[in-house]
Amino acid sequence: MALDGIVTRSIVHELQSCVGARIGKIYQPSTHDLIFNLRGSGNSKLLLSANPTYPRIHFTERSSINPSEAPMFCMLMRKHCEGGTIESITQVGMERIIHMIVRTRDELGDVSAKKIIIELMGRHSNIILTELNTGTIIDGIHHVTPSISSYRIVMPGFAYTEPPQQHKLNPLEIGQEEFLSLISKAEQDVQEVHTEAVGELEEELKADGSGGPAPSEDPQGWIVHAFSGVSPLIAGEIVQRYKSSGALIATLGFSKENQVQLWEAFSSIMEQVRENQFSPVAGANAKGKLIFSAIPLTLLEDDVKGYSSISHCMEDYYGDKAERDTVKQRVSDLIRFLGNERSKNVKKLANLQEDLDEAQEADRYRIWGELLFGSLHTVSKGDKTATLVNYYDEDQSDIVIPLDPLLNPSDNAQRYFKKYNKYKNSLLVIDEQLIKTHEEIAYMESLLQQLAHASLNDIEEIRDELVGQGYLRDRNKKGKKKKKATRPTLQVFTSSEGIDIYVGKNNLQNEYVTNKLASSNDTWLHTKDIPGSHVVIRSETFGDATLEEAAQLAAYFSQAKQSSSVPVDCTLIRHVRKPSGSKPGFVIYDHQKTLFVTPDEDRIKSLPSSLKS
């Protein structure tokens, strides 16, 4: 896990700028996350996340949509912490646990102190609010009941219990002599592991950080086992520096020189951490996996990126990973439904094409019927075929007409006239069905593309659209009706020239930004013949840079995101119109010119953006 005790220490060091700041508004945009708006020492936003996959705490500049009704835990945090002053932010040893002391006034005006405990421990992550004086839990963002854990309970009214201790040593408090002693102890432990006293020995050694693998055989594993807050990533970095010093890992114990060299590699990192000399970096390791660290790593290969702060590093590293994971869970049923609907329409399209091919033979049946009627005297009941001269052919060649031997010649002719009339009439119906089926397929593909870029709020708008179009049943029909937003929330980018560029992420947003928000002389962009977002430049005057960036956005938020030289049409809003009775988000346009761009994700991310409703 990238977020270890060292990263936590760098976060806490950076968050010291929050001490003395006042907590403004508190939001809970998702199940696991809190946002604190801080005032004083420079206004900023602080993200606290107990996400089981991406737990973290750092300053954030990302905009998020908050639910119309705040969750209960958010309401409780507002009650106890809004308006309060942050008195201290500390780390528990080198663990991934942070304590934030907040002093505020209660309903009676009395001074009250609360402790917010942020536990960044993978699937066990939590944000817990407690009374500072008594340690009583007021509530936690995730409840832990006795049925979940017999060790500790995280429920209102219970005393707070720390997570189980790992009995590891603090790497910042270790000197060279003690480090070398630990190596000797660990080597001895391995040699005596098969003795009768092994149980007592392990208990004794665990208390002083040894009892793990032998440093000579697995120095990385031993470091992780012995010292708190040191992840396999940092332990691997220590071993990498140890090896690069020219040392060879012994097979049977360390020489004194080996042990000193390992200490020097260990100390070179811990001295940086002890002095809070952090230089966050991110990049790919030898296996191509993207990793980040609060300190420079020799393990990183090419394209190493440095950051001015650990918050910028984590913001860039995590990006929208947490939201994307949540979105994937929420949209799985919609993607399955839309995929099935698309498959059904593709199959229907194939059947309609077969019917069309057959219906286009209608004239043949008319000719057969007329030739039979003109030659009834030459055909007898019971004949299976009739060979007649085709007067409609320039060469007057013979034609073989299949017959039903159970019918007389006149009935056979009537049968072909009926087929002719049937297929002639069906051609109009088939043409209508073909158009409708092509529209259905395009509509499903556009929704699938929108789900690929959807935020949590966008998902609900897409689901509501499918309900409104009659594809899905309203899940809230029997319950409390949701209050519909009068205007959707739109993502607005600011071009390098300071011009607002509006991007619709679903059909509700596309229709609003194109048909209601934009003025007739605003510029509209969309990928040519490719499902994608409606993009509008809200200005009559702008330069080539803004047009290029808007085209980038149109290509990026489309089905051609991973393609190169994507065609993007642009025209004025007054040349864009919605046909009567067409599907949501569907428009036709003219007077367009086509640009060709290759989506650049880094360039898109560099554009300032915000959410507006």
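^ that was protein a. below is b, sequence first then the tokens
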Amino acid sequence: MPKKKPTKNPQIPGVPGPVTPPLEEPAEPSAPLPPKDDQRAPQLRTATAAAVEGPPSARSQQGEYLTTAQGARLYDTDHSLKAGEHGPTLLQDHHLREKITHFDHERIPERVVHARGAGAHGVFRAFGAAEKVTKAGFLRGGVETPVFVRFSTVLGSRGSADAVRDTRGFATKFYTAEGTFDLVGNNIPVFFIQDGIKFPDIIHAAKPHPDREIPQAQSAHDTFWDFVSLHTEATAHTLWNMSDRGIPRSYRMMEGFGVHTFRLLNDDGETSLVKFHWKPRLGVHSVVWEEAQLINGFDPDFHRRDLADAIEAGAYPEWELGIQIFPDTPEQMFEGIDLLDPTKFVPEELAPVQPIGVMTLNANPTNFFAETEQIAFHPGHLVPGIDVTDDPLLQARLFSYLDTQISRLGGPNFGQIPINRPHAPVNDMFRDGMHQSAVHSGVAPYKPNSLDGGCPFMAGAEVGAFVEVPVALEAATKLRGAPATFDDHYSQARLFYSSLTVIEQDHVAQAYTFELGKCYEQTIKERALGVIANIDPDLCAKVAAGLGLPAPKPSVPFDDAPMPSSALSQIGAQWPVTGRVIGIVADENSDLPAVEAIVSGLAESGIVPLVIAPHGGTLVSGSVTVPVSRTFDTARSIEFDALLLAGAPADPRVNILLSEMFRHGKAIGGWNDGITLLGNAGIADSDGVVTGEDGPSVLEQVVTLLASHRVWSRL
């Protein structure tokens, strides 16, 4: 694992720049500042992927002086050129025209879906366990591959909030020596639809109502529930969204799934079918619903801030990449599950997830637009040894992703944008087009040719060519339809729901009740209840009671109760606490020597300590000085995974903080005067509230509780 990079103040992530600015505006010319220690730019490569020697800042701004886009130095950028001080602006003002014209064209079309995102650089290291099933070079033992990952929400615009109830995108670009491989997935293993032709329908239904453009980034409205209650193949995905998986605690604590089944080819020409899984080493965790609502009001950038701050603090998030392996049979079925149906998953009890590598995200982008916004993923970016299947949703994505990049990024040369440039040599014979930044040589961009010496030549499989797996196709009749195995819309929803703990099932019922309670049309609520009845009658009864409606009976026969899958519940295990945030309430009358020791110890252990005080600056007691991270005005419970009370400041804002932490099931500890504050709040003897004679002993118990994410008995 890469070493933690030092920052100016490792206790408080969020440093805006690499140096502390002076009080007065600088007057002496100086070169552009370098990126912060936690930042990294795309590798220096030409548009055709040749490695380039040079400093990391080679693509950033140059020189000490402000210039035009053509490099002419400027003496003034505050005043336009006028005919006299009060006269009209002159058309000849080329600097004004250039500056305003560029500003007018700064924005590009946002993604239709997954518009709201955050990204990071990292490295993937292969274990070698995949060598038996694929010849992909980046999966051979010990190979390290640079990656860039973009996390996202599906429904909201770029300006929407992070902690909405929604599916999350989990897209990874592997810059392999054999070409770029994109694994474009979600944090939910099943999808709303089985066929890509339905994609415009589900997105049109889930997006804001077209007349008012509200609600933003939410599924709690009539058009969404109208669609999913009629199009019942969406049932399983909808249920996952209504579970705690729909409101993750952090991108760092989120699973990723390739959703589709892929075909792998090994060195011996043997094929296997696989599903890809990302398993976070910090575990899979979520926020509770009230907490999510507070987050979206107090910090709509919650998830992107959490990811960037963790990387800046050196708490690099990690995921293991694993695969479920299935025989490549003509039926493409496994244990009665159609592997080409993207609304189905395979329980891990039937096909264990086998780890094949680990990914570490260890650097933030240098520029959000240039990297996170312009990165272009495509399921058709494949490498030798990995091929697609006939999943009808995947087949449509192979067309759609390429098409949308051309529209969004201004033409077919989006692969030449630095963040998208391959790390393998490119000789594609493509020419011209918008934003062409390569300077092609030669006179024969066609095949066959002799004028360019026959170059480029065709490659064989023995020298690394990508060769589609030859799959036999049976004679068939052209039709619009789906196999009978796609008709089961409820069994996997039942499996998922039955695998959840009682607490998680209660959250599902509350989510359905809230979402349907936001619908206007009574018929849509009634129809949705009919779908829920086919998942679980008790769940339907709870939701119906909350809506004040009768609970319908199931309309499809129930099979035997499914065998629960332990991998589907988020509750019950112990997880690492690296990167968690602990708030410490203190003032000048608190036990500041203990606070100082706790802050230092937590920072060394990879936990982020934030001291919360009545004022900013520092807390001073004798020879002890403790930097303040948050004040009672700027702190809110949503930022902290646990809370320590080193004193008992008499302030109503502390009482609100304490009340929210308690309601949301978070660990709380106190000593000395902090015990008095807990007693006054009436929670001193509650589960997950610990007291002791000194700070270190209380901290130890709180960290132990933190490994379970929440005090579940309190919820």
